[in-house]
Amino acid sequence: MATSYHEAPWHLVSSLDRADSIELMEAVLAGGVEREQVFRDNWRTLSAQVCFQNQSLLLKVPRARNGRRWERLLTLFRGSDSVRSFHHLEQMAEMGFEVPRAVLACERRQGGFITDSFLCYRFVEGRRAGPQDAPAVLDALRSLHQLGYLRTDAQIANFLITGDSVVFIDFRLKKPWFLPALQKARELDRFLRSCPDARNSLTEKEASSKWLRLARWLEDLSFGIRRLKRRFRDQRKKRTPR
Fold it and tell me: What is the extent of the structural domain holding 11?
């Protein structure tokens, strides 16, 4: 059960006791946690496997989200991305899905805005899902959709396989209110794009769904607009004198 602590200027949400929570927070802030493996370290995200009290954790620092002005503005009315992700992990576990165990989320406010945050959860030993796992991953995704939720970013790479279990990673829960059938179909289409072999595991109803056809058209349109924007940006850079 998560508990909230306040250690000025930080707010902590943790499954650890207060002393261990503060010790882990201070170790992260001071760079005192040993990085066993770094998965990403750029302006957008720090994602690294770290060791704390002989336990492997995954440390995530959403640098881009912490720094975007409009995201900071939204934090006047809600918690940080890290704290929300902590609660999403808890919620998924309560619904019976396999997810990493949330350990600690920390956020710091200045002038009412979130300016810094990070998340730690248990590191899961497993392998990335591949095309051979498409039927099991599809079943897990369908189960989530049946409960009325999206997982966001439903790429095959964002699922792990441990034994016979499908583990959800790198997700944020979303409950669609407007045209939920279409939004679920769009998420399914994105998953199929990341794993074309999964089309062989669709049910007849899914394969012939009008929602899925519409979703595919909308996703094609969305990708086309992105390509045009990228092309215009590239052309603008070429025209700009150095």
Answer: 3-122
